[in-house]
Structures are given as structure tokens and as C-alpha cells.
Amino acid sequence: MSVHVKINGIPVEVEEGTSVLSAAKKAGVKIPTLCYHPDLKAFGSCGMCIVKQEGSSKILRACASPVAEGMSIITNDPELYSVRKTILELTLSTHPSTCLTCVRNGKCSLQDLAAEFGIREQPYQPRVNMQTPVDDSTPSIVLDPKKCIKCGRCVQVCQDMQGAFALEFIGRGSNVVMAPAAMLTLNDSPCIKCGQCAAHCPVGAIYEKDETSKLIEAIADPEKVVVAEIAPSIRVGLSEEFGLKPGTVSTKKIYTALRRLGVDYVEDTNFGADLTIMEEGYELVHRLTTAGSVLPQFTSCCPAWVDYAEKYYPDLIENLSSAKSPMQMQGPITKTYFAQKKGIDPSKIYTVAIMPCTAKKFEAVRDEHMSSSGYQDTDLVLTTRECARMIKAAGIDFNNLPETEADDPLGEYSGGGTIFGATGGVMEAAIRTAYFAITGENLKNVEVNAVRGIQEVKKGEIDIKGKNVRVAVIHGMANAKDVLDEVRACKKAGKPAPYDFIEIMACRGGCIAGGGQPYGADDEIRKERAAGLYQDDKDDPVRCSHENPSIQKLYKEFLGAPLSEKSEKYLHTSYKKVPIYKA
Ligand code: SF4
Ligand code: SF4
Ligand code: SF4
Ligand code: FES
To answer: Which residue range forms the structural domain that includes residue 11?
Structure first.
């Protein structure tokens, strides 16, 4: 049912239950916010969005107050302005305000509001303990409690969206801090390193571990041959860092930018994604066609999901595909096959992966399987945001760059590799190849719409010549709980598996909105980024991983066949139970 309200006298019609904040947006009125994020239930902690209702003495928080028929809202007057300014001044009195050396300089909600409200002095006594330690215990993210403004977003994200329960508010009143339970370090907590807290934090209190200086050192080292690769979702993610519309595909400009930064070779992780599909697809076919196999098979390319499974569902780790992620396949193939082909000493190769993901920094060093080439397979992982900072610092005019191609042979890919970046993409690419592996024919229509879209849990049945393959696709770690519990219950009761193949991505929307992607993703932006990848797939003359000529050549010249001894050595891994809390 619709209701009619006025915002600063502007009439607007909205659905019942809409927040005052959203109604104002529809009326073209911006209300300042600090703690609110469209992904989350309004928490109402900061008070910046206060508004008045005509005929009432109550002050409402626009983010947390629903509209009612006939309401007339005032969003700005001298009193509201003054209260908001006081809130900001009080917040700043507990904040270090070290903007020049802050990772969020230029991209910080608090900094923006302080500028908009023209705050020039500090009327309140500063109360910041500059000795409060920074937690940099994980390879992925850094927590600086000094900068926390207690908005609550990270706690909600970690608990409600990710189901990881690594962060909570500890203490009371002005002494409250946001930290892992019992004040453990993040590395000892249940943190799965997804970085969604960093992507949602409005300030610089949680951020990706910046390792850009390592790439600068590697490029400067004449002994090193630097080989860069870009993940499927980078081709849309990086564009936004340069003011381009969400969903804009910039693949060939990114290759050029990396070359101008000084890397020696440019590869594409989409090649690794095609390779993952070959190994994972054939593993699925093996499980489907071999009596007594463990089903369902789970995808394993999201390291945050793997981390979650090892901690929360260790009884299901035999269900995880043993195939490594695209990044961790690209690395060993670069240091073996590619090195041999180019006549490069593999000990000199330095591989850098540009990823949407903070958990990938952890994955690169998670265990000995990540050094299957005899060297660390991926030497460095940089997020989209780190890569963008390097391009800007180098003075590269990204938008006017000429386009170049990736280097052969690990730069060639299919559309199946491209769609890995969006929720449902791995499943769709795997179905394209599994169908071929079982029937010897390609699907007539390679687009599997049942697994596309932003719906949290997508279920369907795919008919592969009379065999119904039951699939589920889940994104947003907490959304996986019901399906995982269902699989666990069937397993415990000795009942047949309820699904055959399940794709799980820790981040809402998949890697297009990973923890290292440009700030500000909401569902609209997620849909646009995904649409960019699907269009790129559509425009690709090769849509199926098994039809990528360089993949075919790799098997012919080096690996033999999917699941061969060599493939197992370089491209597969194993998992183990990990305690939720480390002692
Ligand atoms: S760390 Fe960031 S997201 Fe978490 S409560 Fe503090 S300011 Fe908010
Ligand atoms: S990285 Fe993910 S799991 Fe870890 S604290 Fe942040 S939201 Fe929670
Ligand atoms: S969904 Fe993608 S970006 Fe997010 S944690 Fe998993 S691999 Fe990383
Ligand atoms: S934005 Fe509404 S209370 Fe913070």
C-alpha cells in the first residue's frame, strides 16, 4: 500500500514501511548519515539523520523511522544543523583526525561530513588514546580501534551478513570498543578474512593490509620477472575507481596500466578460472557418475568460505572440491609451464594477483599446497583499491589509456571464466563444461538464468540428458547456514544428499562486491557490476572453459588430462579442521 508524505513541503508517494530517509531520497532531499548502510538494518547509533515531524515535538532518526500517511517532515533547520554539528564535534573529540596518513583519506564519511559542516575547530577536550594498539595479526585486514566511531556496521556485517561472529562490542558507554570476543586478536578469532567489515566501515578503522610497496620493490629489482594477473571481477571493479559507471568493463586498459606500472608480463585470472572449471567440472562428473561418492560437491574458490567451512562445518570438508581457486591455479602454472615456455628461471618469477578480495591475501600463504611449484605460487595479492592507488600515484591517466592484450598463453580465456566474478557464475561455467563432459555436446543455450541474480539462495535442477543435477547457489556467508545444516542433517541421518552441486561465495553478490572492491557497493551497484560481466561473456566468441584454445594446449603439452597426476600435484589441495577460536 502506498502512503503520501511531504519532505520539506515536497509531496512524495512511497510504499508503507519505507523509511523517512528513503522517502527523502525519492523526493530528491539528502539527509546526512553516518551509521546507516543500505545493506544493513538501520542501527540508529549516530544521530546524524535526525529530522522533525510537523505537529510533533519528537525528533526522529530518519534511517530508522518508517513514514506514515500524511506525515510532513522537516529535514533541515538551524536547530537540526546545530545538533548535527555538535554530534560531529563530539565524534571528532574521540577521533585521532590523522587524515593525511589515513587509508581512507578522500574516501571517508566522517571527513566528508566535517568538510560539509565546515568544522574548523575542536570545542571539546580530545579524548583519544593514541597508544591503543593496531591489530594487524591477519594477512588480510587491519583493525585500528582508535579510529572507530562506534557506528556498529562492522559488527552487524560480521554477525548478520557473514555469520562469522568475529566482532562484537565490548564494554559499556564511552569505553565501548569493537573487537573480537575476549579481546583476542583477529587471527585468533573466528574471522574468515572476507573484508566485508572493511568494505562497510565508514572510516579508516578497518582496512585491507596495504602491500603496494612490495610490488614497487619487486618491479625495481632487476633480478625479478614480475607477472601480474587480474581476477574476473577486477575488469568491472577498477573502472569505478576512475569515475566510470558501475559495470564498465576496462580489461584491456587495466593490462596497459599494469605494463605502465612496470610489470613484465600480464596474465588474466580468467584463464585460471577456466582451468578451475576443467578440474572442478570433471571432479563433479566423477562424483556424479561414481557410486558411493560424497555429494553434494561444494565450490572451493572463495577462500573466506573455505575458512568458514574449516571452522564451522569441518564434518563437510570432504564435500569441498579439491580444485584450487583460479588464482592458486594460475600461480603454479606460471612458475612451471609458462616459465618453461618462455625460458625463465622460475625462482626469478614474482607473481602478483590483483584481486577483489582480502581473503586472497590469506589464501596465498595458507599452507604448503600453495607452494606446489616449488616456490610460493602467488607471491603477492593486491586488492582493487590498492591497485587503483598505485595507478593514481604513478600519474597514469587511466581513462585515456590505449587498450592492449594480455600475454600468451595464460591471458586467453572464455566467457565462462569471466562470469566467475558474479554469484552463480562458477556454477554456470561448471554446468557448461560438465554438460559437455557427460554428453560430448555443448549446451544449446549456455546461459543458465536459474543461477543468476541477487537472490540470496537460488535453487534449481539442471537436466543433463535425462540426469537431473540438483544445484544451489548462495552468496553472503550467513545465508548458507540453512542449506549447510540441511546437508549436515542428511549426512548424519545416512539419508541421500539433498543437492548435487552447491556454489558458495562469502560476499553478497560474489566477488564483484568483495571486501577489496571500491567502496559504496549496494545491491544496485552489485547488479550493474554483474551485468557488465555477463555482457562481456556474451560478447566473447568462446563461452565455455573447455573450448579455450590455450587451456586445450596446456592439457596437451603439460597436464595430460583433468584430474591427472600432474593436475593433482599443481591444481588440487586439501582441507583440515580449524578451531573457531585459537587458544
Ligand atoms: S570499526 Fe568502522 S564499522 Fe566498525 S564500529 Fe568502528 S567505525 Fe563502525
Ligand atoms: S573480515 Fe569478515 S569475518 Fe573477519 S571481522 Fe571482518 S566481517 Fe568479520
Ligand atoms: S566472494 Fe570473492 S571476494 Fe568475497 S571472500 Fe569470496 S573470493 Fe573473496
Ligand atoms: S544514520 Fe541514522 S542514526 Fe546514524
So the answer is: 2-76
